[in-house]
Design a protein that fits this description.
It is built from two helices and four strands, in the order αββββα. With 138 residues, the chain is of the alpha+beta class. It has a single domain, classed as Helix Hairpins (Orthogonal Bundle). Helix 1 packs antiparallel against helix 2. The chain is elongated.
């Protein structure tokens, strides 16, 4: 085994490990967004046809009483700092579409993680093979 081969393989494996850590971090962020979206849908569906009283946080543990009128429009962030007003069903449909997109992203991340794991496993086997060959030569 040449030392250069081992160093190159080690660098490749370190890069793959860093990439795997990045994929895991992205997966956690997407999961958090997915949980938030599911919670938003549950909250929107829970809003009934009656007026509700709630507390709205204004910061530093301070709240203001607010009234939520029935069947009101909802403001939905559509990205790039832009928001639109929609009725409840349209807002729910919009968030459900975002959930589908997030699920696709999760599937893609999972496939990438699997591929990286296979490459890491292959690299480990190659490193073991190189070490065994080196020990046999000595």
């Amino acid at each position: 085994m040449s030392e250069e081969q081992a160093q190159t393989l080690l660098q490749q494996m370190q890069a793959l490990e860093a990439y795997m850590a990045d994929l895991l971090q992205k997966e956690q962020a997407v999961m958090k967004l997915l949980q938030e979206a599911i919670g938003a849908i549950e909250s929107m569906k829970a809003l009934g046809d009656t007026q509700l009283e709630t507390l709205v946080p204004v910061g530093m543990g301070t709240y203001v009483k607010a009234t939520i009128p029935p069947n009101e429009k909802m403001v939905v962030n559509i990205g790039a700092g832009a928001s639109i007003e929609q009725d409840k069903n349209s807002a729910i449909n919009y968030v459900e579409e975002r959930i589908k997109e997030l699920e696709i992203v999760l599937q893609q991340l999972s496939a990438q993680k699997h591929e990286v794991a296979l490459r890491l496993e292959h690299g480990q086997r190659e490193m073991n093979r190189l070490l065994q060959a080196s020990q046999s030569n000595q």
